[in-house]
Amino acid sequence: MADGKIPAGMPVEPVRRYTDMAIALHWLLAVALLAAFCVGLYMADLKLSPTRIRLFNWHKWAGISILVLSAFRLAWRLAHRPPEEPAYLPAWQRRLAGGVHHLLYLLFFLVPIAGWAHSSAAGFPVVWFGVIHLPDLVSPDKQLAETLGDVHAALAFSMAGLVSLHVAGALQHRFILKDNIVQRMLPGRRAQDSGESRA
Amino acid sequence: MTRRNVVVRLLPVVVAAVLAQARAAAPVAEPALVAAQSEISFVSHQMGVPIDGRFLKFDAHVQFDPKAPQKGRFLIDVDVTSVSLPTSDAMEEVVKPAWFNSRNFPAARFASSEIRAIDKGHYEISGRLEIKGQSQDVVVPVAITQSAGVTTAAGEIVLHRLAFAIGDGEWRDTSVVADNVEVKFRLALTGIAPL
Question: pTM here?
Answer without folding.
Answer: 0.83
